Amino acid sequence: MLEETHDAEELIERVAALDIGKAELVCCVRVPAARGSGRRRQEVQTYATMTRQLLVLADRLRELGVTRVVMEATSDYWKPPFYLLEAQGFEVWLVNAKDVKHLPGRPKTDKLDAVWLCKVAERQMLRPSFVPPPAIRRLRDVARYRIDLVGVRTAEKQRVEKLLEDAQIKLSVVASDIFGVSGRSMLAALITGERDPKVLAQLARGRLRAKRSVLEEAFTGFFTDHHAFLLAKMLARIGQVDTDIAELDRKLQELIAPFAPVVDRLDEITGIGHTAAQVILAEVGLDMGRFPTAGHLASWAKFTPGVKESAGKKKGTSATGHGNRYLARVLGEAAVAAGRTDTFLGERYRRITRRRGKKKAIVAVGRSILVIVWHLLADPDARYHDLGADHYDRHVNTDRAKRTHIRHLEALGYKVTLEPAA
Q1: Residue 220: is its pLDDT beyond 60?
Q2: What CATH code is assigned to 15-122?
C-alpha cells in the first residue's frame, strides 16, 4: 500500500562553494531570494588565490551571510583558502571530489563545477572530510616530514651499499649494519685512501673483531678514487639527514608535550612504540567526535574491506582501498611487531596468518589496533588491557568446535562416536 508523505526539502539557506586552482578560484554563493518566494539567488565570482584577494572573498561571504563554505580537496591548493576562511570564523567543509562528480554528458568548466558543488552542498548531500585542528596539523606536518626524511636516509644507505658492490667490497655480507661504529670507521678510511684489507679489518670493534679474517676477504676488491668521491658525498648526505631528523625529534617532543598523557596511553598498546603513538595521534587527531564509532575511524583509514554481494550471494571482500599512507604504514609495522609477541594481538595475527596469509593478517590486526586507539581517545579514563594469548582458547564454543571436527572426519569417510572422557 502506498502512503503519502510530506517530506520538505531541507536546504542550507546561505552556502558557498569554491572550485580551486593554483592561481585563482571560482566562488558560487546561493542565498534565498525574496522572502516567501522559495526561489534562490546565485552569485558566481572569480578571485585570485593571493592572500589579499582571499580576504576580499571572506568579506563578501560575510556580507552575504554565508554560514558554510564547501570546497574540493584539489592537490594542496585547498589549504590557503581553507585555513584563511577557518580563521575568519566560517564553517569550512573539505569534501571528496569523488562525491561531487558531474553526471555523464554534462559540460565541465570551473564555473559550472562551482555551481554544481554549491547546489549539491545546499541540499546537504555531502559529508566533510577530516581536517584536524591547527595544533594537530602542526604536529602532523613535523611527523610526516620526519617519516619522509627517514625514507630519504634509507634510500641513500642503499646507494652506499650498491656503490660498495660496484667496487667488489662485500662489507654488508659480514657486518649486519655497515653504518655502525665499525662500519663508519672503515668507510671513512676508504675515503681517506686506505686500501689495505688487513688495515681496514683492524678497524673492527666489538663482536665484529672475531670476523677480521672474513673482513680481509670482504675488503679485497677494486675500490678507486672515483668510488671514494661518491661515497664521501653519500655519507655527507646521510650525516646531514641524521642531523635534520634529530632536530625534528626535538621539535616533535615540543609539539607533543601537551598531549603526552595520551601518547603514553597509546604507547601501552601491543606493537605501538612512542614514535608510532606520536604518528597515530598526528594522523587521527584527539577528538573522536569526528568518528562516531570505531568502525567509522577504520573505514576512514581504509582498514575495512568492502563487501561484494550480488543477487543475494556474497562474493568475498574487495580491497580496502588507498587511505592515509602514513597511518597505514605505522599500523602495518605495529601489526607485524605485535605478531611476534605472546599477547592477544600476537595470537590473532598468527591465527589469521595460518588461514588467510600475512597480508590479510596485517590489515585485520591493524584494524584491531585502530579500534583500540579509538576507545582510548574517546574515553580519557580508559587504559589498554591485554586479553592474553589464551583468549581464544578460553572463549571457544565447545559445541561448535565439536560439530566442526565431526563434520571434517565424516567428510573423510569415518563414522564418529563420541564418549565423554573420565
Answers
A1: yes
A2: 3.30.420.10
Cell readout for 20 is 580551486
Q: Where are the domains of the chain?
A: 15-122, 136-257
Each residue of 77-111: pLDDT tens digit? 899 999 999 999 999 999 877 766 655 556 778 78
Task: Look up residue 33 and give its DSSP letter.
Answer: -
User: H or E stretch including 375?
Assistant: helix 358-378
Helix, strand or coil for residue 70?
strand
Outline where DSSP puts E strands in 295-372: 307-310, 313-317
Q: State the Cα–Cα distance between residues 248 and 250, nearest whole angstrom.
A: 5
Kindly give the pairing relationship between strand 91-95 and strand 24-32.
Answer: unpaired
What are phi and psi for residue 152, nearest 5 degrees? Answer: -65, -45
| 160-174 mean pLDDT | 94
Query: Left if phi > 0, otherwise alpha if psi is -120 to 50, otherwise beta: which for 172?
Result: alpha
Can you give the pTM of this predicted structure?
Answer: 0.83
Confidence at residue 219, expressed as pLDDT on a 0 to 100 scale: 93
Q: Specify the 3-state DSSP secondary structure of 110.
A: helix
